[in-house]
């Protein structure tokens, strides 16, 4: 076999790339990781999952202080120091980005700074301020991630027209914010800034918000958002978006066809993520593409020998950090000759960190019916859960979608306090191929939020106790 300097070159240090590189190091593969940005961690750590959740946490603390009198605690004139909120968020990001550097070093992964381009035949060109070099490996993983899609004719800017990057750098809480797009990113920012006191309007072209979720979840989030005075316009179009000097204005066409001029201090575009597959040399390989995404087999192999792809660039799996990480584990295990278990797309949890929070896994009720299952649903509201009462978060429910024939768990959909944490039990149950019956006999500690999950499994048989 031809001798090459590396067993593996990973391009990109997001959750997919850095985890794959560390695992490769653990398996004893000589590994290099190329990253074009100064800091490690990719979208997730630098401008995605982590900074948003840091802000959401502070928004939550702020709300608790503002409403503390409900719990008998009187806080006179609480004041939000947003620059400090932002500094805390930045410190969390920096700490973990440095942590990634330390973990890579420990796994003996060589870090190369620069922009990587595939040259074909296992070769990669790395361009940096200090020049251009070509490196070679037996295997390459493309983990170049994604960036925010923009609406045609719009360019992001730090002051008015924002993506997930600019909005995380605002110096102050905006008075008003229009968000275009009500997927996970859009509704999370709605939830953050609404709680900090911003007047928020969400405009979604599709008939419902969080459109990939079970319909009942969308309805509940829509209901809660409206109750909290977040304006939600679904089935609506935003056009003629322009900067006014003080802010942004646009023409809204509502679901009923009425037109209205909307103005706000800031506008966030959250209409999806474009895979970073342009200008990385894929045209010099045999890689097959699907509308800009890279096609892979169950072991993350592309059609080019020795070239794998993972994470947000991959066709057919959701753009989520934990998907990127697991795809990296599969790819590295496969190339290292270790047991590699392909991803089961039906067992990928989806979490949306709104308030109430959403956690879901598996088929929605509509998907299960469309696939011909004998669907039996169990549903339990958090209103019947004593821990939810203690926390003062009564909204939402747990919904179990099962097949009547064998009690197979097809999907679990949660909206409520810590819904994004509670879904873990359902994911483990499905991975272990537990049935509804198993979950009915699983003891749930009291008083906990996850008792609501146990109750929802009982509800499949009409046997929940507290509702
Ligand atoms: C606001 C927001 C919130 C999110 N919240 C969540 C969440 O709560 N949970 C969740 O699971 N997911 C969340 N996501 C999605 C998550 O961030 C992505 O799914 C995840 O980051 C994808 O990981 P990745 O490794 O594929 O790519 P990325 O994280 O995008 O990393 C790709 C890396 O490759 C580098 N790169 C690109 N091209 C080159 C090149 N040619 N040469 C060298 N380096 C290159 C980039 O600089 C980047 O560092 C969120 C996304 C956003 C925008």
Written overview of the protein:
- By secondary structure, the protein is an alpha/beta fold.
- It contains 13 helices and 24 strands.
- The protein has helices at 15-26, 42-47, 49-66, 82-106, 164-167, 184-195, 215-227, 321-335, 365-370, 386-391, 419-431, 436-440, 451-459; strands at 6-11, 31-35, 110-113, 115-120, 123-128, 131-142, 146-148, 161-162, 176-180, 199-203, 231-233, 237-243, 248-253, 259-264, 266-269, 273-275, 289-290, 293-294, 307-309, 350-352, 357-362, 375-381, 397-403, 408-416.
- Strands 1, 2, 3, 4, 5, 6 and 19 form a 7-stranded mixed β-sheet that branches.
- α1 packs parallel to α4.
- Flavin-adenine dinucleotide is lined by residues 11-17, 34-37, 42-44, 48-49, 52, 115-116, 143-146, 164, 185, 276, 280, 311-312, 319-322, 324, 351, 353.
- Flavin-adenine dinucleotide binds next to α1, β2, α2, α3 and β4.
What does this entry show, briefly?
With 467 residues, this protein is an alpha/beta fold. It has helices at residues 15-26, 42-47, 49-66, 82-106, 164-167, 184-195, 215-227, 321-335, 365-370, 386-391, 419-431, 436-440, 451-459; strands at 6-11, 31-35, 110-113, 115-120, 123-128, 131-142, 146-148, 161-162, 176-180, 199-203, 231-233, 237-243, 248-253, 259-264, 266-269, 273-275, 289-290, 293-294, 307-309, 350-352, 357-362, 375-381, 397-403, 408-416. Helix 1 (15-26) runs parallel beside helix 4 (82-106), helix 1 runs parallel beside helix 8 and helix 3 (49-66) packs antiparallel against helix 4.
